[in-house]
Specification:
The protein is of the alpha/beta class and about 400 residues long. It has 3 domains: about 5-105, 3-Layer(aba) Sandwich (Rossmann fold), CATH 3.40.50; about 150-225, Signal transduction histidine kinase, dimerisation/phosphotransfer (DHp) domain (Helix Hairpins); about 235-390, Histidine kinase-like ATPase, C-terminal domain (Heat Shock Protein 90). Helices cover about 50% and strands about 20% of the residues. The protein is built from 10 helices and 12 strands. It has helices at about 15-20, 35-40, 60-70, 90-95, 110-185, 195-225, 235-255, 275-290, 340-350, 355-365, and strands spanning about 5-10, 25-30, 50-55, 80-85, 100-105, 235, 260, 270-275, 295-305, 310-320, 370-375, 380-390. Strands 6, 7, 8, 9, 10, 11 and 12 form a 7-stranded mixed sheet that branches. Helix 1 links the parallel strand 1 and strand 2 (about 25-30). Helix 5 (about 110-185) packs antiparallel against helix 6 (about 195-225). The radius of gyration is 40 Å and the shape is elongated. It binds adenosine-5'-triphosphate and magnesium ion (MG). Adenosine-5'-triphosphate binds next to helix 8 and helix 10.
Length: about 400
């Protein structure tokens, strides 16, 4: 630890020399008048204690003391008045101004050293105490911030659940109303055949959207309850990819979008893994890509990321040239019931569960899911998954 720094202020050189001799154990700065004293006290290396003469021309010790005590930067430096004055009134005045002690000349070297030692010790304790208070305050502020953000997160959760209930009751009610309404028309004896077929088609559509919705909810509930178990089976990767692309081609075509599948050379034909889950993730991503793109193209691309003798890690990419996702929203889209564009929601439908389901499934397949996107340029959803290689001849 560096030795404490003292500032000796006196207009008489001889007095300064005496004090400097007595206080050889300390790092000592000197000032020959009030101005200089203030300068040193406010410098980058302020003293730990000031020995201040009272009788000085121009600015006396009382004035210097008053200025130092009124300045927050120097207020805490202990000041000891050093003077030949012996009057009680002078001593009182000095202490009232905020000095910690009062030493009279001529000095007794060991008493001066002792007193200075005591005041420096006191200052050290006070500084340490202040530091502790600061640390403690900081801890309290941090604890309060954490508590506040937890509260906000909890409130957000409640809000999301309420919004979910509102959305879900609509999503359930609409197809159910169609099914109930149109099936009652079917009972009318003289309903023309064309209308009967039309109603049946409506009932069919509503039933399958209801089933899709219920399935999604069950899936999510299962992942949340950690009940999902992968069901590995041998499957043909290329066929699976061609299948999902074909499934979305009519929708893409209707919107005037081109849809491509990019396959690299040497892709293994047969792999073992949970093909249904893989298909589900790809469907969710392709459904989004088509839904959130109005011009341009959608592509599904894969590459072999790495392999061992028994495993194959594949990187899947679903690219679109759609509306994109602002950077600050790229995290939250993976949370349940998050939908960014209300206008899009109306035309695209959905509940904001697709990406949540994907985000939960992909790690089960040994991979990760992430997005790269630029607003109005498009998005690429990436994910990786690990599959077992089919043993030759099995
Ligand atoms: N390819 C994309 N381009 C732009 N925005 C996207 C894209 N994919 C997802 N998003 C944004 O993320 C939100 C959440 O997507 P998610 O798939 O979870 O829900 P959804 O598609 O709205 O509904 P669901 O998938 O349940 O039918 C979307 O509503 C949309 O705002
Ligand atoms: Mg979706």
């Amino acid at each position: 630890m560096p030795s404490p720094r003292l500032l000796i202020v006196d207009d008489q050189r001889s007095n300064i020399d005496v004090l400097r001799d007595i206080l050889q154990d300390y790092d000592r700065a000197i000032a020959l008048n009030g101005e200089q004293a203030l300068k040193v006290a406010r410098s980058k290396k302020p003293p730990d204690l000031i020995l201040l003469d009272i009788m000085m021309p121009e600015m006396d010790g009382y004035e210097v003391c008053t200025i130092l005590k009124n300045d927050p930067a120097t207020r805490d430096i202990p000041i000891i008045f050093v003077t030949a004055k012996r009057e009680v009134a002078d001593e009182t005045r000095g202490l009232q101004l905020g000095a910690v002690d009062y030493i009279t000349k001529p000095f007794n070297a060991s008493i001066v050293r002792h007193r200075i030692g005591v005041h420096l010790e006191l200052k050290r304790h006070r500084d340490r105490l202040e530091e502790l208070v600061k640390e403690r305050t900081q801890e309290l502020v941090e604890a309060r911030n954490i508590a506040e953000s937890r509260k906000t997160a909890a409130e957000d959760g409640v809000r999301a659940k309420n919004e979910f209930l509102a959305i879900i009751s609509d999503e359930l009610r609409n197809p159910l109303n169609s099914i109930i309404g149109f099936s009652s028309f079917l009972g009318e004896p003289d309903l023309p055949q064309t209308e009967r077929e039309q109603y049946l088609e409506i009932i069919n559509g509503a039933s399958s959207s209801l089933l899709g919705l219920i399935n999604e909810m069950i899936e999510l509930a299962k992942v949340e309850a950690r009940e999902v178990q992968l069901q590995p089976e041998p499957f043909d990767l290329v066929k699976l990819l061609q299948g999902v692309v074909k499934e979305f081609s009519p929708q893409a075509e209707k919107k005037g979008l081109t849809m491509t599948l990019e396959l690299p050379e040497g892709l293994p034909e047969m792999l073992t893994g949970d093909a249904k889950r893989l298909q589900q993730v790809l469907r969710h991503l392709l459904k989004n890509a088509v839904g959130f793109t109005n011009h341009g193209s959608i592509s599904l691309a894969v590459e072999r990321q790495s392999q061992t003798e028994i495993e194959e890690r594949i990187h899947f990419m679903v690219r679109d040239t759609g509306i994109g996702i602002p950077l600050e929203k790229q995290e939250i889209i993976f949370q349940e019931f998050t939908q960014l564009e209300l206008a899009f929601r109306r035309s695209h439908g959905g509940l904001g569960l697709g990406l949540t389901i994907c985000k939960r499934f992909v790690p089960l397949m040994g991979g990760t899911l992430w997005v790269e996107s630029a607003e109005n340029k498009g998005s690429t959803f990436h994910f990786t998954a690990v599959f077992q290689k089919e043993a030759v001849g099995s």
